[in-house]
Amino acid sequence: METIKSIWHHFSDKHDFPSLGQNIQTEVAVIGGGITGITTGKLLARAGFPSVVLESNAVGSGTTSYSTGNLYYTVDDQLSSLEGKYDIDRVKRIAASRSETLQQMTRWIQDLSLDCDYKKVPWYLYSSNKENMKTIRDELQTGKEAGLSVREANIHEIPFSLTSAISIPAQAQINPMRYVQELAATIKNANCQIYQHSRVLSIQRKNGEYLLQTSRGDVTAKNVVHATHTPKGIKFVQTLLGPYREYGIACRINGTNHPEGIFWGLYNEGTVISSRTYRRNGETYLIIVGKPHKVGHKENNEEIIASLEEFAQTHFDVQETTFRWGGQHYRPADLLPFIGPVKKGSTEFIATGYSTDGLVYGTLAAHILTDMITGQDNKWADLYDSTRKQPLKSGPKFLKENIDVASHYIKDMVGPGDFPVKELKKGEGKIIKKEGKRLAVSRNEDGELEVISAVCTHMGCNVHWNNAEKSWDCPCHGSRFSTDGTVLEGPALDPLPKNPIRM
Ligand code: FES
């Protein structure tokens, strides 16, 4: 398998933001320079509130850069699922909050001349079989009740074999990494300082303020925003979220037999596959994303990427697969994001549980959090209350996510079997137990063995090998680590210790 890299990374320009090299005092420290963090910085600067954005890698290069780049009013869990949990007025407001946010993003793209390959396109949901036709009917009805201009689609508009389909006109597509980088470049305001390659190593509460430490400077702030997809450190909300990973590919295709649009296909056994095209430098790319699974639960992640390639080849004249990547999302038990303070009255804020709808929800979260910090009312804030109790109807899903976590604790405590390390091939990883310690052992492409602790530094579950991305992934709350133990994403702050014993 070739290097994992999203198409958005390839087609983004480098922007020169410095890394933090001194101590700073500010009103708001924003952790994370993706769509939520940069939009929050932009809005706070506009409101005259000083902020500092700390991004661990390059601006826009985290979760945002592994998304589909699709912007739409509806939600990936389907509006009809929301209607199973909430009354229709609430569903209507959720749809309205997303459509208003998408329209605001469109205005910014036009007014600020953001060079992000924006395109207005229709959204389609289709069923590949008879079993899923009811979902399509339900979605049509709920969409109409929610006030969306959803209609039955002509099946000839869609380049797949299908049984029924619906559509919403005038949705949108962007290169999400370019969008965030271009937006960040417009913040020419001393009120918002952006630092990249400045990983937050710890967050402490000191004298009524927050102290965020990086390797070359500290930030002290009255408010802190976790714009990191899932909050850093141990937070109660993590028990309400399921971490999922899905893969994407981009292929160069011949011909023009893929019409423009966002296509979500419902296939057998709950499989959902999303496709779209992207044009850049005179080439047309087909992007296929799908087959989500719980982080760390899949034995062979390479298989998923291979099946997406097979899907593309079955339906289109594919020249070659040019990019392959994985992206993460967090699914809330009651299907709605958590946006607001970690607990009532706190000045520590979270924005998480976007499912795969994070580009619009990330922007919406930035508006809500900015209004909270600056003391303004926000008409959508109550929908996504971060301190809400989980409604009863989400009980079974909540229990399932937590039984999953508990089962990893129990299974992992039993410990893995012994394994002769010399049998490990290049690009392979295994958990072994030695001298009473659980070790994550992998062999890199140079044939060298890398040995780190297998115990996740977040809350102690065992990490699992991800053979597609050559990473160690924690099934409990989605922390991911490189083979040398560096935190790649998720709630963990500390790396997995190297060489816990001599081998
Ligand atoms: Fe929570 Fe690993 S992410 S224990």
Model description:
- With 503 residues, the chain is of the alpha+beta class.
- The chain has helices at residues 7-10, 35-46, 79-83, 88-111, 133-145, 176-185, 301-315, 358-374, 395-414, and strands at 24-31, 51-54, 70-71, 119-127, 151-152, 164-173, 192-195, 202-206, 209-214, 217-226, 241-253, 262-266, 272-280, 283-294, 318-332, 338-341, 348-352, 429-434, 437-443, 449-453, 464-466, 471-473, 480-481, 487-489.
- The strands form 4 sheets. Strands 3, 4, 5, 6, 11, 12, 13, 14 and 15 form a 9-stranded mixed beta sheet that branches. Strands 1, 2, 7, 8, 9, 10, 16 and 17 form an 8-stranded mixed beta sheet that branches.
- It is 24% helix and 30% strand.
- The structure holds FE2/S2 (inorganic) cluster.
Given the C-alpha coordinates, what overall shape results?
A: globular
What share of the residues lie within helices? 10-25%
Number of helices: 9
The main sheet comes to: 9 strands, mixed
Distance between the termini: 28 Å
Q: Oligomer, anyone? A: single chain
The class by helix and strand makeup works out as alpha+beta
How much β-strand is present in the residues? 25-35%
Unreliable stretches: none
Radius of gyration: 22 Å
What molecules are bound to this protein?
A: FE2/S2 (inorganic) cluster
Number of separate strands: 24
Would you tell me the overall average pLDDT? 91
